[in-house]
Amino acid sequence: MRLSSLFPFATIFAVASANPMGRAMAVHESVAAVPSGFAHAGSVSPDQQITLRIALAQSDIAGLQAKTYAVSNPANALYGQHLTVDEVAKFVRPTSVTISEVSEWLSEHGITAKNVSPAGDLLQITVSVNKANALLGAQFSAFTHSATGKSSIRTLSYSLPASLQSHIRFVHPTVAFVPPLGAPSLNAVEVKRDVVEKRAAPISDAVPASCASVANPACIEAIYGFPADKANNSAQNVLGVAGYIDQFANFADVALFLRNLRPDLVGSNFTVVEIDGGENDQGNAGVEANLDIEMTISLAGGVPVSFISVGDDSQDDVDGFIDIVNSILATPIETRPTVLTTSYGFNEQDLPPSLAIGICDAYTQLAAAGISVLFASGDGGVGGVQPTECTTFVPTAPGGCPFITSVGGSTGVPPQVAASLSGGGFSNVFSIPDYQANDVATYISSIGDQYAGLYNSTGRGIPDVALQALNVEIAWLNSFWLVGGTSCASPIFAAMIALVNDRLIAAGKPVLGFLNPFLYSPAGRAAFTDVTSGNNPGCDTDGFSAGPGWDPVTGLGTPSFSLLLRAAGL
Ligand SMILES: *[C@@H]1O[C@H](CO)[C@@H](O)[C@H](O)[C@H]1NC(C)=O
Ligand SMILES: *[C@@H]1O[C@H](CO)[C@@H](O)[C@H](O)[C@H]1NC(C)=O
Ligand SMILES: *[C@@H]1O[C@H](CO)[C@@H](O)[C@H](O)[C@H]1NC(C)=O
């Protein structure tokens, strides 16, 4: 199912056909056949109402990207001058020509659209299937996702008036056949703890061998040099943890975790923000949600942690991945996160390129506004979010977006080795950003023609960094468990970034914001210990190997808190 390579955005079939309004139509996006994993499930009533989003051309996304790089590159005079949401909106807001052309077209069909993004670049319409077919020269019908039975209404192709092609990025959901987001498999193994365990005293010398088999907060702090001091600057330094698919973080489990493993932080708590009908069901503790909250609260002591519970009523039809961005942009700066960590993701090939780019453009707005956006890199090695059958390597999304920091996995006592599940590889949608161009070129030349044809040698490489991803101890269902996955690594790194931000705020400096140009800068990379051993098997291969320098298994390596502080000029 390689939608991305076979069916690019704005395909070349310029089949002009007249529609009832007399506008010449041209196919905008299409797929040749129903993607594998989905089955056609018959027609739908022409009167059935469907909701579509029209992504308008943004006035200057290239300008936003350039500005985001400028304010995030330590070598640039504008470093740290993060944009306000209004400044971001100026780049993203469609031109008045785009707005009037598109509304004229919609009004010809008697349709009024509603604005659903702060900058007005996303319009939403609710129309009958009949009307949608007429508007878009489409044939909407029912499809079922075979593995889950989840049904959806999609079309294999849609057209736009030729004169509007440049004013509309995409209409969604139309040709996107995206498998429902699955819970990352953390392979939770219960460990017996009959008595309240005293927190292992902070480890000051060598990290004990026991940390290789049970990575509790004391181990993780020792491995990466987390500070003992609690953060003091809670204002404008919220750490956001994204929660999806009815995964709820449990107050009682988190309290149990802290009592046992960070007694000095007992009483620390998290707040819950609910969007898209998200809930806070305390009768339904999610292993992923607990992991993410326990890592952030226990490691970023004193930093306010906000669990953003994204419900099933997503407006974006990508499980809320774009809705959460618009929600954060609409949050007052005092409570807006400065770091956002997400332990869920897609295989890039399951997203039409227009949508992968649309998601990336959304997160770029957060990056521009000074928010560090972290995503777990996936748990299937070179095979994607989870181990899958594959004939070519499967990069993950949205970590392949150049404005996101992709967090891979490592394990063991220092010097750490790669966790074999660590998602890594090269995007088929996003080209190599400048900040890692030399690193990627050096790695690719080091492997010669190994795996030629299985990965895209011009694509953005992931992950950027790696942290603990195996044998991580958590509390869940009133008990203790060991879990594994890059789902552990992303919140751990988020906690570290939040603590650096705390020190920066205390020093009167801007927070780190979009991390990658800083991480790959000479000062930034000096804060990492290169991981040179291990590999990430998948697709019936041994996967890539970690080695000296950046690699698509562990990125730049594992961070040290004190060296990151120094890199940040503290
Ligand atoms: C926070 O304040 C306490 C009390 O003044 C101090 O001991 C601690 O070092 C501070 N933490 C940081 C990170 O500066
Ligand atoms: C955390 O906050 C929730 C919701 O306000 C509350 O029910 C719970 O008791 C709090 N936990 C602690 C340890 O304060
Ligand atoms: C490889 O990646 C580039 C982006 O760097 C993309 O334009 C191209 O289509 C990709 N090739 C394939 C075969 O997917």
From TrEMBL:
Matching entries from Pfam families are given as: Pro-kuma_activ
What are the catalytic residues? 288, 292, 487
Xref: SUPFAM superfamilies: Protease propeptides/inhibitors, Subtilisin-like
* InterPro entries with a match to the protein in the record: Peptidase_S8/S53_dom_sf, Peptidase_S8_Ser-AS, S53_propep, Sedolisin_dom, Tripeptidyl-peptidase_I
Localization, per the record, is: Secreted, Extracellular space
**Gene Ontology BP term (one):** proteolysis
Signal peptide span: 1-18
| UniProt domain Peptidase S53: residue ranges | 214-570
GO cellular-component terms in the record? extracellular region
Residue numbers binding Ca(2+) = 530-531, 549, 551
Q: How is the cofactor bound?
A: Binds 1 Ca(2+) ion per subunit.
Q: Which cofactor does it need?
A: Ca(2+)
Q: Give this protein's Gene Ontology molecular function annotations.
A: metal ion binding; serine-type endopeptidase activity; tripeptidyl-peptidase activity
Per the record, the domain of life is Eukaryota
This protein's UniProt keywords: Calcium, Hydrolase, Metal-binding, Protease, Serine protease, Signal, Zymogen
Record PANTHER family: PROTEASE S8 TRIPEPTIDYL PEPTIDASE I CLN2 (PTHR14218), TRIPEPTIDYL-PEPTIDASE 1 (PTHR14218:SF15)
Q: What is this protein called?
A: Subtilisin-like protein
Q: What is the organism field in this record?
A: Mycena albidolilacea
